[in-house]
Design goal:
There is one protein chain. This protein is mostly helical. It has 8 helices and 3 strands. Strands 1-3-2 form a 3-stranded antiparallel sheet. The radius of gyration is 21 Å and the shape is globular.
Length: 172
């Protein structure tokens, strides 16, 4: 057995909760959401609203469709978020003059000014993780690779074939 191989586990071990990467990721996500709830309270934003604001602070005015692509959200999820941000006076929605079907989202002055207050959010989140900046970067890179691999697997249903999985140790 090489250093990169893991010993074969009995099939029943793969059904243990503590062996499920999806559970670990879900638990971490819920823990992040709890921390973000506290950190974002002073900004008056929820975590999903914060993500919308991050994209707009970074890229400026965008069509709703492009915003959804950036955030990996469908319009049914994104539209209510944007409406709440508009009601709060942070963004403005306007139909595109070039294409009536397209709605542009842009920051208001108040939304742009909120960016200054939000500068402390990443530092507070990083401190809450207990990770060094390099560790956070490495984790983000690994999660990006994982996301890319899972996206590719959903595009290639043959990769999810049970026969192909028999050759893959340690995928729980």
């Amino acid at each position: 057995m090489t250093a990169t191989q893991t010993p074969a586990a009995p099939d029943t071990d793969w059904l243990r909760l503590d062996r499920q990467i999806c559970f670990s990721l879900n638990a971490a996500s819920r823990a992040f959401n709890s921390v973000y709830r506290i950190v974002l309270k002073d900004l008056g934003l929820t975590y999903p609203q914060y993500l919308v604001m991050l994209v707009l602070w970074e890229q400026g005015e965008l069509p709703v469709k492009k915003l959804g692509e950036q955030l990996r959200l469908d319009s049914g999820t994104l539209s209510p978020l944007v409406k709440r941000l508009e009601t709060a006076g942070l963004v403005r929605r306007e139909r595109s003059a070039q294409d009536e079907r397209s709605v542009q989202v842009s920051l208001t002055e108040e939304g742009a000014a909120l960016r200054e207050q939000a500068l402390q959010v990443p530092r507070r989140i990083a401190a809450a993780t207990g990770f060094a900046p390099e560790e956070i970067g490495e984790l983000r890179e690994r999660l990006d690779r994982l996301t890319d691999a899972l996206d590719a697997a959903t595009q290639d249903s043959a990769a999810l074939d049970p026969a192909a999985l028999e050759e893959t140790p340690g995928c729980g």
